Amino acid sequence: MGLIENAKRLKEVGEVYEETLNQLLNDLTQVISGGCSALEMEDSLFPVYAPSATKKGGILAFPFKCMGKRGYLIINEEGIFFEDLDGNVNKIRSLDEKA
Length: 99
Description:
Elements: H1 3-31, E1 36-38, H2 41-44, E2 60-66, E3 69-76, E4 79-84, E5 89-94
């Protein structure tokens, strides 16, 4: 693949990524309580792709502030969790619960 083809492909992938991320953030907003907010909007819009460093592990994590503490909103197969920077974990919602 040449330079132009790679640039076009990367643009396509970026557009799909942006659309999917926006939908995920909209879905996440529907299921979290008002007690949680993005730490810094710019930072929180970018998920952490290696949340294995957290106790809860997961698919993705977003920098958030919940219950007055900074940490990560973690999405995993069990549900949505908040883990603060001290490693304390709180379940926000099970995946089988309705928003």
